């Protein structure tokens, strides 16, 4: 392979930091999940419900994670110059099929979302769900892989600091239940006249 052909080759597809030599197919899949609930509709004749009057209502819809399936190929690493073998001195074009396969496996096993650039759109927060590699007599010295990627939909959490119990207008009602230990009943104030009268009345 000549140096100029390598420099002038345009490759726009990208899986994370991995750039395939060739992309055979790209299959994009986007699904909208629509929830349905069965209901019974009264018929006009009997006024009651029947199988003919049964139906479904939809009250909610949400987007499923996007999926992308790519058939990609990597050529075997070879000499930089066509006239001389430079692989023995460390001058080779690209990585070997074994190294590229390991790089795809490492990308899958890190479980860290990455971006994917295709010919139709750019994906963010993607992970490799399935990595299929088949080797036969025609692909012994190259790497042909089918990569199925799925989008990861994440949520953001936020910590909110609430006011202290002493600063609340209704702290007893709004604060959480707390264990304050055993409490001694407060003594009731009683006048001397009421105590004397209680001795004679027996109350």
Average pLDDT works out at: 78
Q: SSE order, as H and E?
A: HEEEEEEEHEEEHH
| N→C terminal distance | 113 Å
Q: What form results from the Cα inertia axes? A: elongated
**Structural class designation:** alpha+beta
Strand content of the residues, in percent?
A: 35-45%
**Poorly predicted parts:** 1-10, 79-86
Helix content: 10-25%
Structural overview:
- Strands 1-8-9-10-5-2 form a six-stranded antiparallel sheet.
- Strand 8 (114-117) and strand 9 form a beta hairpin.
- With 203 residues, it is α+β, with helices and mostly antiparallel strands.
- It has four helices and ten strands.
- 16% of the residues lie in helices and 36% in strands.
- Mean pLDDT is 78; it is low at 1-10 and 79-86.
- The protein has a domain at 14-33 and 63-77 and 94-151.
- The protein is elongated.
Looking at this protein, list some descriptive labels.
single chain, 203 residues, alpha+beta, 6-stranded antiparallel beta sheet, two-stranded antiparallel ribbon, 4 helices, disordered N terminus
């Amino acid at each position: 392979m000549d140096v100029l052909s390598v420099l002038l080759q345009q490759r726009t597809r990208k899986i994370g930091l991995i750039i395939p030599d060739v992309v055979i197919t790209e299959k994009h899949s986007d699904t909208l999940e629509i929830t349905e609930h069965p209901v019974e509709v009264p018929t006009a004749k009997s006024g009651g419900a029947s199988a003919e009057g049964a139906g479904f209502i939809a009250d909610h819809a949400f987007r499923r994670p996007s999926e992308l399936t790519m058939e990609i190929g990597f050529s075997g690493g070879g000499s930089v110059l066509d006239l001389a073998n430079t692989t023995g001195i460390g001058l080779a074009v690209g990585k070997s099929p074994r190294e590229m396969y390991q790089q795809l496996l490492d990308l899958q096993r890190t479980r860290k979302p990455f971006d994917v650039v295709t010919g139709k759109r750019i994906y963010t927060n993607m992970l490799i769900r399935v990595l299929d590699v088949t080797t036969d007599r025609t692909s012994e010295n190259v790497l042909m892989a089918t990569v199925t990627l799925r989008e990861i939909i994440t949520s953001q959490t936020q910590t909110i600091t609430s006011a202290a119990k002493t600063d609340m207008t209704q702290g007893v009602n709004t604060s959480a239940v707390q264990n304050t230990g055993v409490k001694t009943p407060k003594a009731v104030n009683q006048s001397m006249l009421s105590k004397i009268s209680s001795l004679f009345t027996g109350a």
